[in-house]
Amino acid sequence: MKTKREILIKQIALDLIYDIAGSILYAAGIYTFAGNGGFAPGGVSGLALIMNHLWGLPVGTVTLLLNIPLILISYKTVGKRLLIKSGVTMLISTIFVDLVFPLFPMYSGNRMMAALCSGVFLGAGMALFYIRGSSSGGIDFLTLTIKKKKPHMTIGVITMLIDLAVILLGVPVFGDIDSVLYGLLATFVSTVVIDKILYGIGAGTLAVIVTGKGKETAQSIAKNVDRGVTSLNAVGAYTGADRDVLLCACSKAEAYMVRAAVREADEEAFIMFTETSEVFGEGFKDVGA
C-alpha cells in the first residue's frame, strides 16, 4: 500500500514529465514551424508571434506576460490548483521557447507544411498539458472556463472558435490573406489532434450481445479474448422468451475476436458494437488517470 507521500511524489514526477514533453512539442509548434511561417496559429502564443514579427519581442516571455490579465479574469472559475499547475507549465514552456529552441534552426520550407506541422505539434503539446490537469495558459484558461459552463462542447472546438479572432489579426501584420488560411489550417489540425488524443486514444468498443446462451457465450469471450462480461436478464418483447444481454468492453482491435467468440458459442446471437469515447477500469485506463 503506497503512502500519501509516495503517491504525491509520483503525481509530481508525472506532471513534470508531461510538462517537459508537452513543452517540447509546444515549442516546436510555435518556434520551429510557426515562427518563420508567416501566420499566427491563434491563442496568446499567436498574439506573441505577431508581436515578435512586429517588434522582435521573445515569444515565450510575451506569452507569459499576456497571461497575467487572463489569469485574473479566470481565477474564480478555473481555481487555484489549475492556475498553480499551469504556472509551472508556462514557465517550463517559456524556457523551451525562448532559450532551448532558438539554439536550433527554424523551418523555412513550404508554408503549408509549416502550418500542418505546427498544428500537429501544438495540438499534441496542449493535449499532454490537459491530460495532467494543466494548460499552456492564456486562451486555455478561457477555454476551460467555457468548457465548465458548456460541458457539451469539446475543448478543441472551443479553442478553434476563440482562435479565429487572433488569426484574423495576422492579415495586416503578415500582409496577405494566405496568413489566415495557414493559421486556420494550423488551428484546425491542432483541434483534431487535441480531440483525438483526449477522446480518441482512450476510445474503445462496447459489444452488446443478446443471446439465449449467456453463460456459454461469456465463457467463450473470456477464453478467446480474455475480456470480462456483464450479464443482464431480459425478456424478448415479441417472443416472451428469456434472454441474456451481455455487455463487453473491448478495444477496437478486439471487436472482431469478440464477434468470433460469440458466434462460436451461439450462431443466433444478436450483436451490436458501439464506440465509446473512453473506457476506465481493469484492462483499460486507470480510473484515477
Structural class: alpha+beta
Number of strands: 4
Relative helix content: 55-70%
User: Helical region count?
Assistant: 10
What general outline do the C-alpha atoms trace? elongated
Provide a compact summary of the structure.
The chain is α+β, with helices and mostly antiparallel strands and 289 residues long.
Written account of the structure:
There is one protein chain. This protein is an alpha+beta fold. The protein contains ten helices and four strands, in the order ααααααααβαββαβ. Strands 2-3-1-4 form a four-stranded antiparallel β-sheet, with helices on one face. β2 (230-235) and β3 (242-250) form a beta hairpin. α1 (4-34) packs across α4. The chain is elongated. The mean pLDDT is 85.
Write the layout of secondary structure elements.
Elements: H1 4-34, H2 43-55, H3 59-78, H4 80-100, H5 111-131, H6 139-149, H7 155-174, H8 178-200, E1 204-211, H9 214-225, E2 230-235, E3 242-250, H10 255-265, E4 270-276
Antiparallel strand pairs: 1-3, 1-4, 2-3
Helix pairs in contact: 1-4, 1-5, 2-3, 2-7, 3-4, 3-6, 5-8, 6-7, 7-8, 9-10
List keywords for this structure.
289 residues; four-stranded antiparallel β-sheet; 4 strands; 63% helix
